[in-house]
From TrEMBL, chains A, B:
Protein name: Recombination protein RecR
InterPro entries named in the record: DNA_Rcmb_RecR, Rcmb_RecR, Rcmb_RecR_Znf, TOPRIM_dom, TOPRIM_RecR
Origin: domain of life: Bacteria
Gene: recR
Biological classification of the source: Bacteria, Pseudomonadati, Pseudomonadota, Betaproteobacteria, Burkholderiales
Function summary: May play a role in DNA repair. It seems to be involved in an RecBC-independent recombinational process of DNA repair. It may act with RecF and RecO.
Gene3D superfamilies, per the entry: 3.30.60.80, 3.40.1360.10, 6.10.250.240, RecR Domain 1
């Protein structure tokens, strides 16, 4: 295989990149931005070597403890459980949560063979017993995310730890007309 | 800057990739496909080192002469001028052209300071004098592509070499109703 074909194939493994975009990317880099090509190669290598997981919350971190876990000024009574570092980053961007996190790095999916051990439930339960008063289950509102939240809520309840779920509802800024029906139905049920 | 931020920045230099997709790509690679990460780093490096330009037609090539230029069974009377290796690849995929190519690696753009020297006009004229009977100007049907074709046609005519332009017209498979007006107008003028 030529280096060009190998490059196109490698670019196709990026999420959302098909044959056509991969080809366009490869040609663009080769013709207009050889510096970006070397920069990306270097950034990929460095990220692969430097980025591990936080020992406490399992999010991506270049240090033993991530920035959030290492911050003593957070509210230690709150622990928010998310599926991925990307979800955690989204929550952090809202700047409206001041507790700590636990990142599952997945969600329960029996069909794919992903069980409680794979998402670190034992570690989560141990972490929740360190003075946490409320675990906010912020897994996705998908079938698997809901099932994961349910299992975690039961396990936490058995240990006397209260858990809550993010509110379902109409996205801020949306016109009701364009919101899908099940979201509206949930927003009705969860009305304040 | 952290290795994660550096990776997101590097991914943003890919065409069509903004902050959000770059972040999604980085998180996906880190969480699900570390092998793809190393593979892409390797492919970028190899491509940067291996892929040069064909000495004859200027397209990307890992050898002195590209596969097309090295093929003695092509029709040496035909030379097709394109703006980029991507355009050449598109023409090759049609499997309906059997001549050789000359790749400008750009198009005339006085405002951006891209002149005849930058797109290799001297080399093209020399190449066209090597037994070529018809130069097909397949530059884009944009203002700059048209201007480039015009300048090349004049220079070729002055040397007694015939040039043609790809036909403008209605894309195959399109309903007239949805084709833009200037395309229909050109298709009328160029009607066969
Ligand atoms: Zn952490
Ligand atoms: Zn060539």
């Amino acid at each position: 295989m030529s280096s060009l074909d190998a490059l196109i194939d490698a670019l196709k493994r990026l999420p959302g990149v098909g044959q056509k975009s991969a080809q366009r990317m490869a040609f663009h880099l080769l013709q207009h931005d050889r510096a970006a090509m070397q920069g990306l190669a270097q950034a990929l290598r460095a990220a692969g070597e430097d980025i591990k997981h936080c020992q406490r919350c399992h999010t991506f971190s270049e240090t033993e403890l991530c920035r959030v876990c290492a911050d003593p000024d957070r509210d230690a009574r709150l622990l928010c459980v998310v599926e991925s570092p990307a979800d955690q980053a989204a929550l952090e961007r809202t700047a409206s949560y001041r507790g700590y996190y636990f990142v599952l790095l997945g969600r329960l999916s029996p069909l794919d063979g992903i069980g409680t051990r794979d998402i670190g439930v034992t570690e989560l339960l141990a972490r929740a017993l360190e003075g946490v008063e409320e675990v906010i289950l912020a897994t996705s509102f998908t079938a698997e995310g809901e099932a994961t939240a349910h299992v975690l809520a039961e396990a936490l309840r058995a240990r006397g730890i209260r858990s809550t779920r993010l509110a379902r509802g109409v996205p801020v800024g949306s016109e009701l007309e364009y919101v899908d029906l099940s979201t509206i139905a949930h927003a009705l049920v969860d009305r304040r």
